[in-house]
Amino acid sequence: MYYSIGEVSEMFHIPISTLRYYDKEGFFPDMERVSGIRRFSEREIETLRVVDCLKKSKLEIKEIKQFIDWTRLGAKTYEERRNLFEQQKKNVEKEIEELEKTMSMLKYKCWYYEQAIKDGNEDKLHEMIPERLPKEVKKWYDHAHEEETK
Amino acid sequence: MYYSIGEVSEMFHIPISTLRYYDKEGFFPDMERVSGIRRFSEREIETLRVVDCLKKSKLEIKEIKQFIDWTRLGAKTYEERRNLFEQQKKNVEKEIEELEKTMSMLKYKCWYYEQAIKDGNEDKLHEMIPERLPKEVKKWYDHAHEEETK
DNA sequence: TTAATTCATAAACCTAGCTTTAGGTCAAGG
DNA sequence: CCTTGACCTAAAGCTAGGTTTATGAATTAA
Fold first, then answer.
1. For the whole model, what pTM was predicted?
2. Is B65 in the same domain as B109?
3. Residue B150 lies in a domain
4. Residue A149 placed within a domain
């Protein structure tokens, strides 16, 4: 089964120009062409899925290219590839934690402005922060203000 | 209590050049200066904490500036500000979900290459995918391959 | 036959969010 | 008194990751 660039673009919600850009970057080293026109096979589709995952885990284009190159080298690069995924796992884990801290701050701020709207001003709030905050709210506040462990 | 730009830079692990850039963007509209030199007060420090949160929730510089402007307009912009934080909460929630899907893919890939290393090739793996995958692994696989609900 | 689609390339262009550079002020220490 | 270090500005520069433009070929639909 083969797909045209336009079909792949629709399937993945990726602009055609981006697919061509990825191709230029060497993401599809063995893609076939029929009189110059690209034919995406299952191989390219699978590549695209992995690329998507690596992009979401914030890997740079160049490093994704490195991974593609490893793939072509076969069994002798299994370890490099595993290490890459292990690393990305750690990175994403850390990012989720960061975002959860951000969520706490956002929840706190939502509560804060909800109160401000009710009161018409921030006077009562200023008296509460941080020791007299409601228990639940203080949890968000504290989480958001935790020190970075860099 | 006042801080110099260098002290703030250390406290927040933000380059001095970036702080000056933020200032130029209007993030510290009421910051004092003593013969041209910036003095960061508690107000600016608090601004910086919120900016940090909004940046982590992927708000653009221009929109952060908008928020700063709202803050200066006082009580009549409480709703706009609350709405902004509500929106960012939704965005971050969605992003965490996305990242959890990415995590599943990464876990699956780690397992995959672990197996490939053990076997020396991917033959056995190809026979397992997707129906004969171990239960735990299939969970990651399925999660990672769920359709986007766009 | 003509018009609309879909594909192709190379190269220029774009944007956000900084960062660097070049040139200068000012206070403290040796 | 001179050097070092921390600060200042304006303006140019940078980078990733695409996107747009200009140009053209091949296919299909009316």
1. 0.92
2. no
3. no
4. no
